[in-house]
Amino acid sequence: xxxxxxxxxxxxxxxxxxxxxxxxxxxxxxxxxxxxxxxxxxxxxxxxxxxxxxxxxxxxxxxxxxxxxxxxxxxxxxxxxxxxxxxxxxxxxxxxxxxxxxxxxxxxxxxxxxxxxxxxxxxxxxxxxxxxxxxxxxxxxxxxxxxxxxxxxxxxxxxxxxxxxxxxxxxxxxxxxxxxxxxxxxxxxxxxxxxxxxxxxxxxxxxxxxxxxxxxxxxxxxxxxxxxxxxxxxxxxxxxxxxxxxxxxxxxxxxxxxxxxxxxxxxxxxxxxxxxxxxxxxxxxxxxxxxxxxxxxxxxxxxxxxxxxxxxxxxxxxxxxxxxxxxxxxxxxxxxxxxxxxxxxxxxxxxxxxxxxxxxxxxxxxxxxxxxxxxxxxxxxxxxxxxxxxxx
Length: 392
Known about the structure:
Elements: H1 5-61, H2 65-81, H3 91-94, H4 97-108, E1 112-117, H5 119-122, E2 126-134, E3 139-140, H6 141-144, E4 145-146, E5 151-152, H7 154-160, H8 173-185, H9 227-230, E6 231-232, H10 247-253, H11 262-265, H12 267-276, H13 285-288, H14 293-296, H15 303-306, E7 318-327, E8 330-342, H16 349-355, H17 361-377, E9 382-391
Parallel strand pairs: 3-6
Antiparallel strand pairs: 1-2, 2-7, 4-5, 7-8, 8-9
């Protein structure tokens, strides 16, 4: 019996087709898996870099007043020993540490800082962008709203009542919506993002986006405001620091808003403000606001009505840090609220107290006084603590 010759050929072609299909699927799955693995690795790297951006911000914001006094005294001694003709340092180097800190702060506040990473130096190719804003330049909504009277305090009614966004929110609607929300809630906010649930405010951004250059490379200010850039819940009181105003609060007060290239184009302005800086400005903002016109161009019209809301002493402790990191087109963004706190020191003096044995009553009293003085002089180290972290 003869077998059909075409059967073997057809069977062979079928086997080859199956092998080709399986091989193609295997190659495709390997390629997909490889690209997915690479993307996950880049994602992990960008997450670590984004967290590293917080450390960059903390390094810029760390300032010890006690250390500043020691450096200032040492600098004064060195200056007295140096001949007048030997001075060749720049203006910034001649500044006291507090003024250097202020200069660096106001130059970068509400603006992006970009750090490009090189694999030869940093171990990885990537980019980190950070934007620092001060919570002391925002309105503490829990302190601004009087929960007993169920209304905003008069000074804040003037500020918030003027908010208007063409095509989105008419004037007076913003404060009306938030007042109704807080009346129903009848307790303080735990987080500013809770305002997202306020009816009528869904068009507003929750988080702040710093200004950028437009497509033509020109620097333009932001058009909108963000809830997290207007309000805060992290400061200890209702006071606002005019030196550290947020971008959105500048818009509300009718002041000049930050621009992306201010670090380069406004250097002279920032230097003048820092050189004139005094911690006593807050005692008379009517007189001392002239020093801030280098930042804001003019004086707010409602200054006389909100003077009681402005700080009397420069002492910022709470900041927001927006950190964006990119590794091979994979980007991770986060927002951290950081607060300066005093690190607790272990109480080592209990053992010393147990070992003290004195027979004379006067000696005992002197010993106790000496111990209390030593304990008072022993201050904890100031550190920054992350109190809230948002992955955006």
